[in-house]
Structure formats: C-alpha cells, structure tokens
Amino acid sequence: MYLQYYLEELGYLNIPDFLVKYLKTPSLLRLKKVGYFCGMDYASKHVYNFREYISRYDHSLTVSLLVYKLTKNKVATIAGLFHDIATPCFSHVIDYMNEDYEKQESTEEYTEEILRGDEYLQKCLKEDNINIDEIIDFKRHTIVDNDRPKVCADRIDGVILTGIGWTKNISKEDIKNIVDDMHIYKNENNEDEIGFESSSIAKKVIEVSNSIDVYCHSQEDNYMMQLLAKITKYTIEKEYITYDELYSYNEEELFNLFKEKEDKELKSLIYNFENVPKEEIPRTELQNVKMRKLNPIVDGKRI
Question: Going from the N-terminus, what domains does the chain have, and what CATH number goes with each?
Fold first, then answer.
C-alpha cells in the first residue's frame, strides 16, 4: 500500500515518543472515518476510483511526521497533527455548501472550540508545558501552513496523498525522492519554508499539483461536490441533522443516517450520487474554485 510506504519513509516505524499519546486524542480519532477526498468514497464508482482509502487522520499524521522530520520541533509537530481538527464530515463539500469555493477555509472557525473542548488534549499539553494557543493558531508555524504559491507540510502532503490515492501519478520511488529532497529554507519574507534541493524533484511536485488542479476543476468533480453539498444542505434544512453535528459524526455514521431516512427526494439525490454514470454528468462550471498552484524554492531560490 502506498500510504503505508509513505508513512515508513516519514519515520512512522520509529515515531517519536512524545507524539504517541497525542494520537489517542478523542477529537483526532474521529478523523479516522472522515475521508481525505471529501466524501467521494461514497460516490459513484463510475466517477471515482481511488487507489486506497485515505483519511483526514492519515493526513494529520503524515503532516506531523513530515514537520518533525524536517524540524525536530515538538510544538510545530503537534500543531501539524491538529491543523485539520475542525474538518467536518465531507470536508470541503461543506465549504461548497457555504459557497466558499476559493479559499475553502469556512470550517476552520471551529478549530479553537474543538481543541479547547478536548480534555484529554488539554491534559497532554499541560504535561508537556505547551500553550494551547500555539496549537490553535497553527498558521504561526509556517512549515505547517502558509499562503500559496509557497510550499508547506500541509500542501506538499496533500500533493503526495492525492497523487497516491486519486490522480495515481506518484510512484513509491517518487515518494522516496520527494521526502529525501525536501529541505527548509528562508523565503523572501524571512519565513521558514519547505523547498527542494533539486529542480527535477520540484518539477515532479509541480506536475502532480497541476494534475490535481485539473481534476478538482473538472465538471465531474464540480458536479459531485455540489451534489453532496446539496444533499447535506437538504438534511440540515429538514432538521435531520444540525450543522454542528457535521463536526461530531464521522462520515460513515452520517451517510448511513441519510440513507435510512424515508424521504423520496433525499433517496433520489443519494441514488444519483452513488450511481450516476460519468457520461451522464451535466456540464457544471463553478466560479472561483481554488487554484492549486505552487512556486517552490529550489536550492534556496524561488523558481
């Protein structure tokens, strides 16, 4: 499995001791059943054919291991682990539902509430004498997250995971080469930023990122993301669920709840979502869908 290979390249078999207890955090464990591909694991197999299941928990773990591998910074590593804690069921589908197509950050407002409400996490942070504000404001750690087209752990990990699971244009050799080639540089803003030592590796990352951008702007993906957004919005309007419950259920629970409802319109929407042939998807164009462009640093210089 490609994901397991990637984890091993990041040092998962020798995971740092301090990180182990944080992997048991209840709010983090929910993300094991929140898919990385925005609920499309439940969509029509005529449209999506993922290589393997990847969860938001997996992404959180790989980001944190990547940060640790590059920095050995304990606080930044933990911030990386919890950077996606406010991911609702169906992830960016909820941004689509909120009409946040461009930044796709409308759900991040729940980060502080979730982290402060997790008593187990609070206990761990107190034991390690870490201020929770360092974790809540994960964007203060530029290695964890920064603005496009710069490169950070969240962004490069997304390229690798999506290349593994969806676009399928990253090999195991590519994974090893990318992980081994990454380095921290000071960018033009005197911030720490992940870059690459060789231009060939940077070009491969850009190639994969550009292919992901094509997939995410395809009429098939636009239609399916909008359709699941419509289904979710419908269930909230019908009061089958509340908006807040998107952050407490996992996707399996929520999708099963949708399917159990004796509601003809909802059943019709779900049937279409699960079965629509690719060739029958209507032309769907959305304005201002996020562009996934990268302009990495190579050997100390922005290319």
Answer: 2-218+290-302 (1.10.3210.10)
